[in-house]
Amino acid sequence: QMADPFLYNTGERSPYGCLGHEVQIEYLKAYVCRPSFYTDKAVIVAHDVFGWRFPDIRYVVDLIASHGYITICPDFFKGTEPWKSTDHWSDFADWMKHHDPMKVDKEADVVLKYLKEQCGAKKIGIAGFSWGGMAVHHLMLKNPQLTAGVSLYGIIRDSEERYNLLNPTFFIFGEKDHTISLDQIFLLEEKLKQYCKVPYKIKVYPGQVHGFAQLKPEDMKPDDKPYIEEARRDMIDWIKMFV
């Protein structure tokens, strides 16, 4: 029995009334939230294993939109079942085989085309959480159209071609994340120093577990709240600097 990597209970979430709406883009469904004023800047949000309908992810989409970005979370699982809190961790590796965060290029292109042609976006960044953090790391190595990325606790896969980022990327981790060791984070830092030619940043937030940064305000524990808010501010600041 594998330990549950998400230390918050996803079964008991407070309900969330979303500010945006759902759209169909080619073969993809997506959740979109727009700011109240015109902008030509956009951010793609890459969801975690719980998928594009998970309330916490929609909360983050709305939050980024409130800072002046057309924000969109496409269904990177293409209509297949997301992971559920009732699923068994022994099946997780098999589920991941069919939901590979390195195989998101086609979906990213569909969404980029939509943002440029339908929404008039000229600069587009991306932020992703957990599974989505891995997708962001992958896309920042492959897709030059993304002007900046924020990867939040994406499990680090080490190989020589993982460090030559195309555009500025910020990596956010929790100190107590038992899916990502501090050793892996130090290695990432070492390799980026060696290979990366664009601005990057790595930050570890004290005492925080996997999944900490997308909690809604009413689900936060008082001790964690300052770190959650700091991580979100840091994410927005990085986006504002480069997008």
From TrEMBL:
Compartments (UniProt record): Cytoplasm, Cytosol
One Pfam family this sequence matches: DLH
GO cellular component terms attached to this protein's record: cytosol
Listed SUPFAM superfamilies: alpha/beta-Hydrolases (SSF53474)
Residues annotated as domain Dienelactone hydrolase: 29-241
Coiled coil region boundaries: none
An annotated Gene Ontology molecular function: hydrolase activity
Similarity field: Belongs to the dienelactone hydrolase family.
Protein name (record): Carboxymethylenebutenolidase homolog
Organism whose genome encodes this protein: Pitta sordida (Hooded pitta)
